[in-house]
Amino acid sequence: MSDLKVLIVDDEPGIRSGISRILRNYRVGYPFLEEDFGFTLTEAETGEIALEILEKQEIDIVLLDNKLPGMEGIDVLEQINKRNYDTAVMMITSYASLELAVTATKRGAYNFVPKPFTPEELRGAIESITKHLFLKRMTKKMSETARQIRFQFLSVLSHELKSPINAIEGYLKIMQEKQAGTSIDDYMHMINRSIERITGMRSLIMDMLDLTRIENGTKSRNLKEVDIIECTKMAISSMEPMAIQKNIKILTAFPESLILTADSNEVEIICNNLISNAIKYNRDNGTVTVSIFTDKTNLNIIVEDTGIGINAEEQEFLFQEFMRIKNKKTQNISGSGLGLSIVKKIIELYNGTITVESQPDVGTKFIVKIPFKAQPA
Ligand SMILES: Nc1ncnc2c1ncn2[C@@H]1O[C@H](COP(=O)(O)OP(=O)(O)OP(=O)(O)O)[C@@H](O)[C@H]1O
Ligand SMILES: [Mg+2]
Q1: How many helices (H) and strands (E) are present in the chain, helices listed first?
Q2: 201: which of 19, 108, 111, 243 is 20 to 30 A away, CA to CA?
Q3: CA–centroid distance, residue 333 to ligand 2 (Å)
Q4: Any idea what the Cα angle at residue 283 is, between residues 280 and 288, rounded to 5°?
Q5: 305 lines ligand 1 (CB under 6 A)
């Protein structure tokens, strides 16, 4: 249960204890929330005492009488407003005039409860103020997270794009000034390097778009019966050129075909990333083994390599966005650190899991488990 702190500001002890009694065991719940809200009560007999309490404690809801012995409720409200407390105020008063209501609203009161009120009226008002407070805080939190993600997105994107753009600009300037000769052949390696850099930039942008689409649920998915083995073979063949460069053998252990309801692109993204990592972070002449099999409940995809490995501490953060392990062994390997976070998000779309087992300088094994209902024979 979440606990909301309520401050009752009223000079009449009877009212304070009445409100306490009504709210003490009251709970507010919403269908969209797992937890109910309960209330802890604090009392103040004057506005001055109320402000002192507010200064020292975090109070969620203030029930504020207007007619108080010293400063009036409406002036307490003004102070609360000025000091920017994260609190919702409900005015309670027996002399409710339109003018007072208008001023109170202007000063940020959430609502008004005229005295005398029945327990039901008070509970109704508390229910509504609780919902208001919850939604207000939730919205604030969500916009903060969205801002942070946008910021991180833009800073990584600009950082990662800067160096290929500089490289291509450099090559173009050399060509513009014909520094390496007059024939186009003199520049072929620069043209090839530029194309490589552009390919890298495109794949980074695509990765980031994929990630954003998965995150906000707008990724279009094409779920149908697909042959997982065929998808895996596609991924392997697109990774082969990379493996050849390091003389890495890709071994496979899987049945001839394995039909499952899935999006073939997503299966390829999973395999592409795991296999490309297994090659990239492998040693020369190493091996990569891709095994696929089903057990009673899961489709298992296991990609194992004989590479640099990942130590236990680093394994913890592996699936975070932009996570790249920086050390001597990885310093010449390029990547955005997005691959595994995309893989994990996709696997979660299938209610599956991905785990890693690894030993530095021995090798790494990624294990994907995707639950499936036994396909009818
Ligand atoms: N098989 C592996 N062996 C050793 N380290 C790995 C392996 N796979 C991933 N890592 C480590 O985890 C980090 C994150 O991997 P991830 O695939 O998310 O990003 P990346 O390969 O750096 O970039 P990208 O896949 O976006 O091109 C890598 O930078 C690498 O340090
Ligand atoms: Mg990767």
Answers
A1: 10, 12
A2: 243
A3: 10
A4: 70
A5: yes
pTM for the structure as a whole: 0.59
Nearest C-alpha to atom 8 of ligand 1 is from which residue? 277
Average pLDDT per run of 10 along the chain, which is 377 residues long?
92 94 90 83 96 95 93 93 91 79 87 88 92 86 78 73 87 93 93 89 80 77 92 89 91 95 89 94 97 94 97 91 85 83 90 96 97 63
Determine whether the shortest distance from the Cβ of 340 to ligand 1 is under 6 A.
yes
Q: Is the CB of residue 306 below 6 angstroms from any atom belonging to ligand 1? A: no
Question: 224-371 adopts what CATH topology?
Answer: Heat Shock Protein 90 (3.30.565)
| Cβ 307 under 6 angstroms from ligand 1 | yes
Domain ranges of the chain: 2-117, 147-215, 224-371
Q: What kind of architecture, by CATH, is found in domain 2-117?
A: 3-Layer(aba) Sandwich (3.40)
For residue 330, how far is its CA from the centre of ligand 2 (angstroms)?
Answer: 12
Q: SS3 of 161, please?
A: helix
* Residue 348 neighbours by CB distance under 10 Å: 12
| Residue appearing with tokens 């009212």 | 15
The closest-lying atom of ligand 1 relative to the alpha carbon of residue 309 is 4
Q: Given the CA of residue 282, which atom of ligand 1 is nearest to it?
A: 3
Q: Is the CB of 277 under 6 A from ligand 1?
A: yes
β-strand pairing of 363-371 with 298-305? antiparallel
Q: Are 210 and 248 in contact (CB under 8 A)?
A: no
Instruction: Give 329's DSSP letter.
Output: T
Q: 255: which 2 tokens?
A: 């049945």
Backbone angles phi, psi at 31, to 5 degrees: -55, -30
Alpha-carbon torsion angle 122, 128, 129, 134, nearest 10: 140
